[in-house]
Amino acid sequence: MLHNHKIHCLIIDDEPMAREILKQHIAGVEALELVGTCNNAVDAISFLKEHDVDLLFLDIQMPQLSGTNFLRTLKNPPKVIFTTAYRKYAIEGFELDAVDYILKPISFERFLKAVNKVLQVKIITQQASHPKENPAEITSSFLYFRADRKMVKIFIHDILFIESLKSYIKIVTTNKTIITKYVLSTLEEMLPGRGFIRIHKSYIVAINKIDSYNNHSIQIAKHELPIGRLYKYNVEMALNASSGT
Questions:
Q1: At 194, phi and psi to the nearest 5?
Q2: Rounded Cα gap, residues 155 and 158, in angstroms
Q3: Nearest CA among 7, 96, 19, 22 for reference residue 53
């Protein structure tokens, strides 16, 4: 995937309703562009020969050729998000290096979590292309979240900290704050490891946004955040490493 273009998506599913739902979900995310739909894997083989595709939304159980067997025929497959009504295919899907595996019917929130995993892969690719840069400072890296009935783009380098609010999280950036339904541990996996650190069971902070700290708390802008007892050692090691001491 090139970091300066939208993610080109192809839907492969034999169910018209499933294709329509995915079309609507894709249209709701600015970073995605639908380049085609196929109602079977055989047609998809021809489509991929003639079009550039970055991401497949791939059903598993289809006539003629299953999604998993179709994927095995591809020498250099795009990123894949499996979409299926059957949980039993999950292990096989992940063995094929799928980015995610979504059970139907697909809610927009679950769709968005899968897409954010693809965007996280994009961040890692950029990091590999710019090894001397702090991954949190690659300004084109971003994730999407649903808040206030709309899609909100959050640039990674703008994040100050994230706070867990039970089944929701609060993301505080340099210019806005949003609250969205998400699990903190899920988001933690998507953030660049060298740019962020968990300081408490309820807080993740951007290391380069820390203004000051002591044994008990961290100061970011006007916010004083607690350091959890179980996290003190890792926090101290990370902050010493970042300061070169």
A1: -80, -10
A2: 5
A3: 7
